[in-house]
Amino acid sequence: MSAAVQDLAGKTALVSGAARGIGRAIAELLAERGAAVGVNDVLAEVEATAVAIRDSGGLSEAAVFDVADADAVREGLRTLRDRLGPIDVLVNCAAIVHNVAPLAAMPPADWQRDLAVNLGGAFHLTQAVLGAMATRGWGRIVNISSVAATGGWRHQSGYAASKAGLLGLTETVALEHGRDGITCNAVLPGLVATELVQMMPDDLRARVVKGIPANRIGTMREVAELVAFLASDRAGYVNGAVIHVDGGGRLNTGSLRI
Known about the structure:
CATH class: Alpha Beta
CATH architecture: 3-Layer(aba) Sandwich
Strand order of the largest sheet: 3-2-1-4-5-6-7
Helix content: 40-55%
Strand content: 5-15%
């Protein structure tokens, strides 16, 4: 385990979409900070995330289920709670980004799937953990949105709309449950070095980076560090916040509009 501050020791976290990318980076850092971490994905390879955490000396269990399925969410959470204990920290990171089409040509089924996973999944998981968090008087919920939530995304109307919907969900949870000791915040990553971004054509990636004041792509660790802070007692008075992690890219209109 890392020598980092163990400010999440004694807490149990659940990270959805943790098989790879930002979700996996978040799960691994929360474990470094001392949390027992449940990891979820629709992909069976999420088990590798749990194994990596255990190999590093942490405590982790994996559960494969589709967050868009409310029944599957309830069953998956029951399994994770039995193995790790009640969920103190929920990170809603599960998302799909592959439904690409102009709005006029977007198949309704693809639109519905984007909303079901990216927004409905966060709703199902949040609803499933809120009651117990409120009873204990402490909880942290972090929704991983996107810069697309505040500026749209060409040819990905379902993705942009679902990520924007997460902001409304975030603020509603903060309003309804702040008095219960629960915080809910949204993190909006910009261009981050995930597997998908690394696969972008070099010229396209360079063009986008040129419009980012930081003049570089962000790292998954940088996103995870913010999430770990929001999950801790140190962020107890941060509630309903919408925080960009984009190197300032949002300040240059159109710089991230691929």
